[in-house]
Amino acid sequence: MKARIHVFLKEGVLDPQGKAVMNALRTLGFGEVQSVRQGKFFDVETDPLAPGESEARLREYCQKLLANPVIENYRVEVLEP
Amino acid sequence: MKARIHVFLKEGVLDPQGKAVMNALRTLGFGEVQSVRQGKFFDVETDPLAPGESEARLREYCQKLLANPVIENYRVEVLEP
Amino acid sequence: MADPKVTRALALQHGLTDEEWEKALSILGRTPSYPELGIFSVMWSEHCSYKSSRVHLRRFPTKGPRVLQGPGENAGVVDIGDGWAVCFKMESHNHPSYIEPYQGAATGVGGILRDVFTMGARPIANLNGLFFGRPDHPKTAHLMKGVVAGIGDYGNCIGVPTVGGQVTFNPCYDGNILVNAFTLGLLRADKIFRGYASGVGNPVLYVGSKTGRDGIHGATMASAEFSEATEEKRPTVQVGDPFTEKLLLEACLELMAEDVIVGIQDMGAAGLTSSSFEMAGRAGSGIRLDLDRVPMRESGMTPYEILLSESQERMLIVAEQGREARVREIFHRWGLDAVAIGEVTDTGRAEIFWHGERVVDMPVGPVSDQAPAYERPMREPAGLQSRTALDVASLPPVAPAAALLALMGHPDLCSRRWVTTQYDQTVRTNTVLGPGADAALVRIKGTTKAVAMSLDVNPRYCKLDPFEGGRLAVAESARNVACVGAKPLALTDCLNFGNPEKPEVMWEFARSVDGISEAAAAMETPVVSGNVSFYNETNGVGIHPTPTIGMVGLLEEVDARLDPAFKEPGDAIVLLGETFGHLGGSAALWVLFGLEAGSPPSLDLSAELRLIALLQELAAHGLARSAHDCSEGGLLVTVAECGLASGSTLGADLSLATRGLSPLARLFGEDASRAVVTAPRGGEQGVLETAARLNVPAAVIGTVRRERLVVRLDGNPAADLSMAQLRAAWENGLRPIVG
Amino acid sequence: MKVAVVRFWGSNCDHDAIEWAPRVLGLASEVIWYEERELRGADLVVLPGGFSYGDYLRPGAMAARTPVMEAVIAHARRGGLVIGICNGFQVLCEVGLLPGALLRNQTLTFLHQEVVLRCETAGSPFTAGIGKGRLLRMPIAHGDGNYFADAATLSRLKDEDRVAFRYVDAEGGLDPAHNPNGSLDAIAGILSEGRNVLGMMPHPERASEALLGSSDGAEILQSVLGSFQRA
Ligand SMILES: Nc1ncnc2c1ncn2[C@@H]1O[C@H](COP(=O)(O)OP(=O)(O)O)[C@@H](O)[C@H]1O
Ligand SMILES: [Mg+2]
Is the CB of C632 under 6 A from ligand 1? Predict the structure, then answer.
């Protein structure tokens, strides 16, 4: 299976990196930029999983390791079964 | 405009973080994981741009700031015009 | 994909000259295979073979009673007594850092750390010399931010404190920044490991990260000028993995505690090729490798690519026969690959196989130690004479206070805090003096000793007179070490120059080597390791000669140390050494008038030696409370720095006689062999008497006071500044660059 | 009192932490490898600073999921003493022994500098011997020390007197200019609900010797020993 997992800061958690990127873009002359939030993503390849099991497994990766529930949310997406 | 930009390491460029995440997942019992590559994404909101201009502008953000052309590639995606 | 056919044209594309191609043909007695051509091209590159510099480097003094290992190994080793030794080296990562500042600088630190722990030493201190273009060059900010973060992140992650260095800006580095990384490690004097592939039948093990296509031809890239065309040919940039390096460090040191290793060397520039050829070459043996056993990160790699890859965090080990299992056990405990990929032979040849097929069969000796060596033509640069002519009398007068503020706030002289706060300075709990002192001081646990380190070079001096510039760099670094009370022991160097095929560059190089040699011999500080970086040149414009010196000294009693900070109001300020008011090549000329002109101060080596002895004696006998060397910026800058170093707001009341010198020359002249020390009120007699006994000129020039820096010249007020004002200028000096 | 220091892959302040108890208290430290499931009778467990697993993914994330941490959690649940320094603090937040998280420094850079800490409570074994209001000098050295917790958690920490240390100026006053990393409420260290687990970003083990500039950090260990002996 091929999948992509997005991990991003929860609403309300300060994102200093995103803010710095926004400021830098504006300084570079891109005055139209109103907000930037930065996150991580993971492209994962696995051995074939039982049909219908993939999403649950990806969510397990997030709960057990990839995301810190205190500050982060995640979204999983199966790209190829 | 709302957009999402993915920035990721070029093929063949070492991804120490992805490698460490893969090893950690396998140690946690997810033996099916074969590879992990880690990347960054940016959720960007801007003032409205001239129609048809958005993608070019997003690419400019990448070239001027968000991506390091020596080791990274990027992909831009307009979510809402 | 089939290998391309090897022809003369392909060899030339690989950077070989016609002569070198002929030599390769005659060594083999046939046309090389494609992997063999790759091997010739990297082994005979400037970077690996030192073909332009070898004949000159022989002039360095390299021996001394404390030298346990001189040049020729991965790093030099010096005895510090009680069974301990220190191992150190400096290396450049200039070209990669210009292309990708963060990764380039990071992998530079990774490489020098491996050079040191491959000798069996635990790295305990890093220093770095950074040379950027003019502060307002459009690329400077980006390069500086990337380089500093890269150096910091790598050293911080590994857990080696970064305790000192140098940052210099000059337009000559606009297109070629320099990143020189120094590491010092600690080891037992009787447990030095070397890069020897000896003992027929002993297994050759590959340990560390897997091999990818990283940095193929990195060594050849470091051996050519930049131009628009090379920007296209950029090789895959190496990405550093400090976490893996930390595991590699721990695994190697654990293994070295047992009798398992015969020889070990890191895979640095030219990767597996140079490590295997050099190890076999040193031992006079042969080596057999099966490339298909090399752990690979990418699929479809060819023998050529595997041999030339510069993937980071890898080492080659020759183990005692029958002990492979132990090596694997220890490396697996640290999560690392350890794979036997070959063995030591008695053939004197490198025989390399790919799935059973022999793809390389070359004699080791002729390729490794009989690489070409050139006596390149040399010529003094035209126009040097006119540059060194300087009419000081024609300079407009300056107001000392304004001049001092301009100097303290200039990027070359201002606070390095923005840089150094990004470096972990105290991990390992040994740092007695970190950045900000004349020399860094790192204690040796279990003893009363500490090791002092300073990194110095003044490129302006070297441009104007490479011989004197080389001597002055050695003298300043030794003086810096003495300022904390330590005895200079030995040095390492990183010789950064332009294109050696230009006779003018070669002349500068040879003169620098002569200057360094003469001073190092006089100071009895042999050169134990070093590095040459040529081709620091873009579109035909080369850098100033920049021979960075890393001096290492020993302080037997760490409690006797001195630091630059003023301590108490009322303390006497004593200037040691003689003032001539020399302005050639000075920071004052550059900062105030934009001039890089005149000749650098001339150095009297015997006066320098006396000053260095005096500083050590003042420290040992507790006669001085602070000491700071008087170098870039001259006397007034030195005094201001002592006040700023105090953290509080101590300044000084200075009373000086001009004795025929202009205020500019008196206050900002840069004479060699001077230092400013303080003594408690009434204690100045002890300093003056000791100085007289050691034949060093010394004079009380004022007292420490609170809050202001007040200068009188011949009894007249000449400057009166608040320390707060000086601090503001000094602390904000890098702000225009880094924000 | 038996002291143990956990060593993860990539820990780099492990040696400093291992030498801490011998230097300050004359007590040996046991070293526990990340794969072990037993703490070998330790009374005080120290999770050292320094880039376990390279700080890849998130600082402390991978160390938090190693076998030894199950033992540390069990030890803490039994009331056993735990100090997490720097990366150790990050690990304690990742496993949930302490609330909140440590985000990237506000400067977005690694920061090494000396800081002044104000001890905010005497109500813990780690601070009883120091006393509320005392000022301590020691270095910080981290890229991710920006303490964050949601509003409810923060007010609980305050209500329950669980803030152990705050960043202050030289006189002991709160001042944003002396909050180096942007931590919420200038928090430098916090206590668990049971007050037996301390996490702090600054490095007391690097400030336990006059030769290195400060010995204030030694007081934390001395306090622990005092409390232990009283108990
Ligand atoms: N890149 C750097 N990394 C760490 N420390 C540095 C760096 N650059 C300068 N420093 C430190 O800042 C102080 C001032 O540097 P410098 O002016 O070159 O000293 P000096 O003139 O005495 O040789 C020294 O203590 C030096 O070690
Ligand atoms: Mg210097």
Answer: yes
**CA of residue C641 to ligand 1 center, whole Å:** 12
For domain D3-230, give the fold.
Rossmann fold (3.40.50)
The number of residues making up chain A comes to 81
| Cα–Cα nearest to C75, from C104, C115, C42 | C115
**DSSP class per residue in D118-167:** EE--S-STTTTTT-TT-EEEEEEEES--EEE--HHHHHHHHHTT-EEEEE
Q: Of C14, C56, C93, C217, which is the active-site residue?
A: C93
Asked whether the beta carbons of residue D65 and residue A64 sit closer than 8 angstroms, the reply is: yes
* Residue pairs between chains B and C whose CB atoms are closer than 8 Å: 37
Model pLDDT, residue C228: 47
Domains of chain B: 2-80 (3.30.1280.10)
Q: D221: Cβ–Cβ under 8 A, 6 or more apart, which residues?
A: D20, D21, D24, D25, D204, D208
ipTM of model: 0.95
> Tens digits of per-residue pLDDT, C285-304?
999 999 999 999 988 999 99
Q: What are phi and psi of A33, to 5 degrees?
A: -70, 125
Q: What pTM was computed for the model?
A: 0.96
| pLDDT at residue C225 in the model | 63
Q: What is the CA radius of gyration of chain A?
A: 16
Structure tokens at C83: 């069974």
Round to whole Å and give the CA distance between A81 and A1: 5
Q: Which two tokens stand for residue C348?
A: 């004197």
Mean confidence (pLDDT) of chain A: 95
Distance between CA C299 and CA C591 in Å, rounded? Answer: 55
Measure CB to CB from residue B28 to each of A39, A47, A64 and give the nearest one: A64
- Give the A:B interface size as CB pairs under 8 Å: 90
Interface contact D33, partner B, CB < 8 A: no
Q: Which of A18-27, C234-243, C559-568, D96-105 has the lowest mean pLDDT?
A: C234-243
Q: What per-residue confidence (pLDDT) applies to C229?
A: 47
